[in-house]
Amino acid sequence: MRKQNFFKLTMLCVIFQSTIFIANAQEKLWQKDLKESLYNVSWIDQANDGTIIASGDKGLTGMNNNTGEVIWSNPDIKAVSKSTFQNIEGLPFFHIEQVGLTGKSKTLLIDASSGKILFDSKEEDVKIGTHHLLPSISSILFEAKQNGKNKLLLFNYSDVQTKWMIEISEADGGLKSLVKSAMGLRGFLKFHPELIDDNKILVGEKEIAHMINLSSAIIFTISANSL
User: Fold this and answer.
1) What is the pTM of this model?
2) 24, 108, 131, 186 — which has fewest CB within 10 A?
């Protein structure tokens, strides 16, 4: 799936409060006033399928990148930082982090083409970090934190279900956690998970390797100190 990127140097995207202009060197391609749906536009980005994602005071909106037509709008998704926007490579999905009125955050996995929320981490009481795509089993492996623990969550996007979530280790806290956040490090695994025979996953973090089967049972754990 090729992303039609409208934010390269050959294009110009300008936000004036509630209005978005998309133009190239020759002409303005389209203009959209989003005051009614978003009021002030905070930021825009683009999903892999080309959909323009715009966040504002009154919610989150998806627009057709060729015409500016609003495809979908969700007034419940507010207070989203652009730094949390992450596309899922090769899929029309993205995930973002939303901060609620209580100050607690949650992660949403959204289908850019329809605006459908595929996964809401609030239901699992977890905070999602980075992700790893496992296309051969139509799944995404999320690195997550819950109650000071590092966890892995397997989400199947073909049947839109969370398959399992398992605890891996203690999460970093205090100064170390702040330093990692400042460096933009959102995960705890040391390398991309290795899928073995489409029924097991090999992951590594710190000095430990874990073999996990797809029924969520850890088959074995090896520490470098034990070798």
Assistant:
1) 0.77
2) 24
Say whether pLDDT at 13 is over 60. Answer: no
The model's pLDDT over 119-163, given as tens digits with 9 standing for 90+, comes to: 998 866 678 888 999 999 999 999 988 888 899 999 999 999 988
CB atoms within 10 A of CB 187: 17
| Cα dihedral across residues 182, 124, 107, 167: positive or negative | positive
CA separation for the pair 45, 42 (Å, rounded): 11
Contact (Cβ atoms closer than 8 angstroms) between residue 171 and residue 188: yes
- In angstroms, the Cα distances linking 20 to 66, 169, 221 are 13, 45, 52
Task: Find how far residue 85's CA is from the centre of its chain.
Answer: 6
Helix (H, G, I), strand (E, B) or coil at 183: coil
- Can you list the alpha helix ranges (DSSP code H) found in the chain? 35-38, 174-182
**Cα–Cα distance between 21 and 85 in angstroms, integer?**
21
The answer to whether 177 touches 187, Cβ cutoff 8 Å, is no
pLDDT digits (tens, 9 = 90+) for 170-197: 887 643 443 344 334 468 898 889 999 8
b/e sequence 133-172, b meaning 16+ C-beta within 10 Å: bbeebebbbbbbbbeeebbbbbbebeeeeeeebeebeebb
